[in-house]
Structure formats: C-alpha cells, structure tokens
Design brief:
2 copies of one chain form a homodimer.
Chain A lengths: L4 H8 L3 H8 L9 H14 L5 H8 L4 E6 L5 H13 L5 E6 L5 H5 L5 E5 L15 E4 L9 E5 L1 H14 L5 E6 L4 H12 L6 E5 L3 H17 L4 E4 L2 H13 L9 E6 L12 E4 L2 H17 L7 E4 L2 E3 L13
Parallel strand pairs in A: 1-2, 1-3, 3-4, 4-5, 5-11, 6-7, 6-8, 8-9, 9-10
Antiparallel strand pairs in A: 10-12
Chain A binds a DNA duplex (16 and 16 nucleotides) through α2 and α4.
Amino acid sequence: MAVKATDVAARAGVSIATVSLVVNGKGAGRVSADTRTRVEQAVRELGYVVNPAARSLVTGTHGRIALLTDDLVNPFIAAIASGVSTASGADTALLLATGSRPDHATLASMGVDGMLVHRDEPDGQAVGGGPVPVVVLDEPGVPGGPTGVHFDVGRGAAALGAHLAGIGHRRVAYVDSARSRTSFTLRREVFAAAFGGEVSTTGCGLDLALARELTTDALAGWRRSGITAIVTATDVQAYGVLAALAAVGLSVPHDFSVASFDDNALSSITAPPLTTVAMDAAELGRRAVTLLLEEIRGSAPAGRSVVLPSSLVIRSSTAAPREDPS
Amino acid sequence: MAVKATDVAARAGVSIATVSLVVNGKGAGRVSADTRTRVEQAVRELGYVVNPAARSLVTGTHGRIALLTDDLVNPFIAAIASGVSTASGADTALLLATGSRPDHATLASMGVDGMLVHRDEPDGQAVGGGPVPVVVLDEPGVPGGPTGVHFDVGRGAAALGAHLAGIGHRRVAYVDSARSRTSFTLRREVFAAAFGGEVSTTGCGLDLALARELTTDALAGWRRSGITAIVTATDVQAYGVLAALAAVGLSVPHDFSVASFDDNALSSITAPPLTTVAMDAAELGRRAVTLLLEEIRGSAPAGRSVVLPSSLVIRSSTAAPREDPS
DNA sequence: CTGTTAGCGCTTTCAA
DNA sequence: TTGAAAGCGCTAACAG
C-alpha cells in the first residue's frame, strides 16, 4: 500500500541507506549531487514519506509533544493551546490530552518527546522526573521542580486591590476557583491584602453558569454586608457575575464594581467592558513550547523558570462605590 | 533506560511472546491464569509500557487520530475540539493541527489512523481518498465524498429569516464569513430568501474585532438605507457588532435587532442576550469521532452523512423595528 | 499452554 | 561516495 524506502531505492537505482541519507538531509558531503537529485525525484514521483513509527523505533524520538489540560472550552485555556499550536514547529506534532484521562505514565508511553502540563494534578502525581522533559504552565510551583512558565500574577493582583481600594471600596466579595492551584491562591491572597486580608470568599468552578448561579444565590448576603465590589479569579466567572447582576436589574459599576483576572478577547466587549488583570495566554503557550523544545533538544537544562508580566486593565466595570449604600 | 518486554519476560520467567499476549489482553484461553498473574505483576513492578513505535511498526496502526482545524480560539471550534477530545476513547490519542500547516499528506505520514477535518481547504486539496479514513465536519459537501457530519443549518436560517420578517423587519444587513464554506453560503442564502434574497451582505473574518470595525464603518450606510436588523454568520461576529453598536450608544434591539448562528455558551449572557441559530458544536465533535472510529475499525463504510439539527433560539437582541425609522 | 522465529521500515555503523 | 547488514521493540504465525 504505502510506498517505502525500498521502492524509492529501486526507482532511483540506489540502496535504501542512500535514500535515508537524502530524505534526512544528511547527504551533505556523503552523497553525490547527481545521486541526490535522482533520489529526490524518485521521492517526489512516488510520493514517499518516511514511516514515522519505523523512524521512532530506531531513533527513539517521536517528533511529538503533548499538551495536558482540562476544559478546552475555557477561552483562556483555548488561547494557551492556540499559542502552543502555533509555536510548535512544522516538524513537531501536538498531542492534546484533556481531562485527567491519560496519566503521565500513559502519555509518556504514547510516544511523546515532552509534555506541557496545565492542569491540577489529581492524585498529586509528581510532575517531572519522568522519562521526558516537562514544562509546567501557569503554576508558580516550587524551586527545584520542572521548568515552568507562569505569570507574575501577584503584581496584577496587587494593582487590582490598590485600584479598588483607591476608588473607595471597603468591602469586597471574592469568587475563587473551586480547584486550588497556586496561581489562584496567589491571586486571592495578594488581592485580599489590599483589604487587610478581609474579603468574603466563595469557591466556584471555572464556568460561567456556575458563577452566575453562585452570584444569584449570594447576592442578598453581599448587599446586606455592604459589599460594593465583586472580584473573580477568572474572566469567565466574571461573565457569570455580570449576567446574574443584569438579570436582577442591577447596574455595573453603579450598584457593584466587577473585576477579574485573564483579559480574554471577549472581556473588552462585555457590558460593561471588564476591568481585569491581563495575562497573555498565547504568549504563555508559545514560551512554554520554546522551553520544552530546547530541553528536548538538550540545548538547555530543566528547572528553569520564566515569569511573564500581568497588568491591570481598567475598563468601565469598576468605579467608585455609590455614596449611599442604602 | 526504558523497560522493555524482554525485561518483563526475564522477571516473570516467560518468553516475550507471552508478555505480549498478556499486555494485549489476548491471553484468554492461551495463557494460564498463573502465568498471566506472574506477568502482570512483573509489568507492575517494572512499570512496563509497550513501546508504541514498535507496536505501530508491526501492527500498522497508531491509536491516534488528527483534528485539522483553524483557530482554536473561536469558541465554536473550541467546543467542537472539546467534544472530539471527550469522545475519543482512552486508547485513542488526539493530534491537533491548526492552521493549514500540515497538509493532509504530511499528516497522514505523521502516523494517524484517521482525520477529522474542519477547515477550509486552501488549494482545494481533495479530502478523502487518502490513505486513512476522513470525516468532514460542519460542511454539507457533496454526495459521494467522504463521511461528514454537519448541521441542518438551512432549517435554522429559514426560522431566523421568518422570525425577523415576521416581527416586521424589511431591510437587513448580513455580515458573512470572509471564507466561503458551503455552510456559510447556505446560512446566508436561506436566510436571505425570507427577504426575497435582498440582503445587504459584507464579508468579514470570523473575529470579534474585525466585525466590530466593519460595523463601525458600515453603520452610517446601514442607517441611511433603512436597515433595521443585522445578522452575522457566527456568534463571534455578532459580539463585535454588539460592541460597535454599544460604543456609539445605539441600543439593541431598539435601534437594531442583532442575530446570528452558533449559540456559544457566552451568547446567552451578552448584552442583550443574543438571538441565534443554535448548533451543538460538542455533539458535532462527538459524532464525528464516533463515525471515524467506526471506519477505522472497519465496522462501517465511508461516505456516510449525519445531519444534526439547528434551532432558532430567540432572546432579547431581536424585536420589532421602531415604528419611526427617523 | 508456551516458546521460537520472522519480519514491520527505517537509521546507522562499518566496509568496500 | 555508496552498499551491506545489524538491529530498534514488538506482534503474530507457527511449532511444540
């Protein structure tokens, strides 16, 4: 069925060893120009492509990296995946594994040269130290661990806290992620510091509908306790908050200020546009791929750490609280 | 480095053939319970996993399918990818290829057992007929082609046309996709039929910002020609339209009705919530995987066609036009 | 029930 | 500058 090296060799009148040299660009100084041309032509005519399994078997590499992540539907994660996809070269395929389905061992056995990990580790599986290089995404993590790329989320969180406190908010509600990741803990704690650590926190899945429900339920309590601003761990949750407030006729930022973290593309067109701590998800993906490929190539050591900036983007979902908190 | 079948065989005191039978679950009635237990224990102790390249080389299969698509960031496409990811079993890995980077031939050579194709074919590359089964997503396509899953988009488009015409709109603008795909052509033509084929059409990339700019530019013209409703080919474009209208203080649906196609999760929480032709993207992905796996398994022929429903969801972005079109 | 053996298609020494 | 030959680790006949 498929055309193989022997076919090309026969057609070009050479041995398969020569075919291999030519198709792998290793012919320089070892294969005559004439022979090479003949081989190349045969390759073209027959439409020959190297059998990747056979090559993997002998070289021990796969030309493939895996991206482990949950929930591709989340725009922030989608943007990361998009960055990863564009940055992995034409000679590196991207294996996508969502959910906690394939554990690291299984994946390593699926034939990848390295892994990008962006997800909670369910049963505390150790990351790194495995058979292939790993780069951890968006998780500050511990020194001495695998290479990681994450955001300086504390800086943005502090700026957001300062912004809200600065325009007069005193009591704020914080809608956290239900899953505990260092990045989320950091967002909350650093933000809360601007209010003396006193923020009313609720956990909530990273899902618009969940945040919407949570807001609807918590609203009465928030108003009762004089809360004037609602901050969420992610933009998607803020969308839910905005929807819940709009549904009961409350106005943002008049009745409540709303802010969050991420700055998805959509966050500039919500009603009102969202004040949020911007992080470049696509860049995170790109950088992570670059680091991983370097380590696969062996041109850089593991254990590196890259920190990307985060910055507060002030839009119209935040403003000074009403004078009269009725 | 890696532990292999010979290691397991040595430890369990059997031959590698037996190891192979056991790890592949083909031992039933061919391997004694005792031997199997010994092998399984050795596998566990050594952490043995089959070398996928070696297996592929001999079996000719890869346990891998590819999803070809553009622009993972688009929520509709992300939802498709998510559906694909969940529906591909634990034993099938998903290779993600965005953009037109790897052409079909290259991909087929990257070791996949089948491909899901959701993208414009740049240079009219023939889909199907290649070395592996292909399922085309979201593209009505021609009979006799490869298997496909798409939406009955005409039905939704007709309903949308009837809805807008029914509440009194007479002149509408249509923001189409810039790329021509059958699915998009169908949306426009069937919708336009409700207005005697008379809709003012503009092409626009599937991007929020582009649609926003286009709207800003076209707005004066639309108002001048008495247009009262704006329909876009996709929800993401509608978000841009909503943003552009909000930016100049126009109210939806008072000044313009806005509607589109897709029904992304976010479309129910835009301001105002969007009237749109709903299509279940995740289900599209799931069905496509199912069909593909069947064809890979050889349990079903190619050339099948599955049509998923589309249905009009009326929310508050559409209403009767103002009596006075000033 | 278990082991021996012949490749899968390729890369890579090593000789010529 | 080219070819012959030895595997990479595994599966699938086939023997026993």
